[in-house]
Design brief:
The chain is an alpha/beta fold. The chain contains 13 helices and 13 strands. It is globular, with a radius of gyration of 21 Å.
Length: about 375
């Protein structure tokens, strides 16, 4: 009876990141650079807040939009960090991670046949959510532009059917981000058009050489900001994300959220409240360590002779498969895993524009980075 299923579900596939990660899982002595999972523990004071929530029986439903204290903390967090202003009572929704925030937003704003512009290469989680709405993803080739989706590229991709533009910066998989002047140009281009901006800013606290800026500071009336505590506070399993948007829009997003999940887990909400208040700067120590690892990885890739674009943020390096190896990104990743027990994600997992590249996460220990990059050097040297 499989033919009776929703065709939109049948046509989407499991994430290429997960496919490859699952393929190498359980192999003894495998050094994995695949999953974007912070290797830091959730801060102790945040864990204790979660424990207190259980002990105090904070285990019931909250308001559909989330506990008001948490929404106030989230609004204050983005005000303090990025100078964004949202009313916690009506313009903030607490979600089950950034993934649900993206899904319910797209389901609210998209209609069948709508086009969504997004950079290529890009995190593979957006396209299935778009297609499940009956909408059409339009990947824009950013390879010649340091992987940045700029106003000039967007202008060339806009059609009468364009309904939304996704700006996922800092980027997964490339680690690049957009500067204020670039965001201003996009805002000037889109202002007044019937087009939404979905700004996925889940890595906003992990930028290195420049302060994160949000396009919502230039175009608040057309922008939906997605954020959360997964990356900033190493709370991936707690599953807390946020939608920030104008009230006229969030009142509709909230309906989709309500019928989808009722509310985010109450215990996790109490932990997130602690993270965004007492732990407002918890990301700083992690960021310093990530920056050290980034610099080490870039140094070693230079020594090996592998090209890359230096990341501005997040914890990924998008590197070039050496042309001398004459391999697709998938074959490169498979052979590297089989011959040297190092797992990276083939660039083809991030759209066709990722072909010829591979992503490696440096959200792991320096020992793992040293071991894995030594093995990678041996692999490349032996095949060159």
């Amino acid at each position: 009876m499989e033919h009776l299923l929703n065709p939109h579900v049948q046509e989407i596939e499991i994430s290429g990141i997960r496919k490859f990660s699952n393929m190498v899982a359980g192999i003894e002595d495998m050094v994995s650079f695949t999953i974007g999972q912070p290797d830091f523990k959730t801060p102790e004071h945040v864990k204790q807040a979660g424990i207190r929530a259980i002990e105090e029986n904070r285990t019931t439903y909250t308001h559909n939009a989330g506990d008001l204290a948490l929404r106030k903390a989230a609004a204050q967090f983005v005000k303090t960090k990025y100078n964004l202003s949202y009313k916690p009572e009506t313009e903030v929704i607490v979600t089950i991670g950034a993934s649900e925030a993206i899904d319910i937003t797209l389901r609210t704003v998209l209609t069948p046949g709508s086009e969504v512009i997004l950079p290529g290469p890009v995190y593979p989680g957006y396209e299935p959510a778009i297609r499940l709405c009956g909408a059409v993803p339009v990947h824009v080739d950013t390879r010649a532009n340091r992987f940045k989706l700029t106003a000039d590229l967007i202008r060339q991709a806009i059609t009468a059917n364009t309904k939304c533009i996704i700006l996922p910066y800092p980027s997964n998989p490339t680690g690049v981000t957009l500067e204020k002047a670039e965001l201003q140009e996009i805002a000037d281009l889109i202002r007044g058009r019937d087009i939404f901006i979905l700004a996925d800013e889940i890595y906003s606290e992990l930028t290195y050489n420049l302060q994160h800026a949000s396009i919502a500071s230039f175009l608040p009336e057309q922008t939906i900001v997605i954020n959360g505590v997964s990356k900033s506070h190493s709370m991936t399993g707690w599953r807390i994300g946020f939608v920030f948007a104008p009230e006229w829009l969030t009142k509709h997003v909230l309906k989709v959220h309500q019928y989808n999940v009722s509310c985010a887990p109450s215990i996790s909400q109490m932990a997130a409240l602690e993270a965004l208040t007492a732990g407002i700067d918890d990301a700083h120590a992690m960021k310093k360590e990530y920056e050290k690892r980034r610099d080490y990885v870039c140094k070693r890739l230079d020594e090996i002779g592998i090209g890359y674009v230096k990341p501005d943020g997040a914890f990924y390096v998008f590197a070039k498969v050496p042309e001398a190896l004459k391999r697709s990104s998938f074959d490169f990743a498979v052979d590297l895993a089989k011959q040297q027990k190092v797992a990276v994600v083939p660039g083809s997992a991030f759209s066709k524009y990722g072909e010829g590249w591979f992503r490696m996460s440096y959200a792991c220990s320096m020992d793992q980075l040293e071991k894995g990059l030594a093995r990678m050097e041996k692999f490349v040297t032996n095949l060159s």
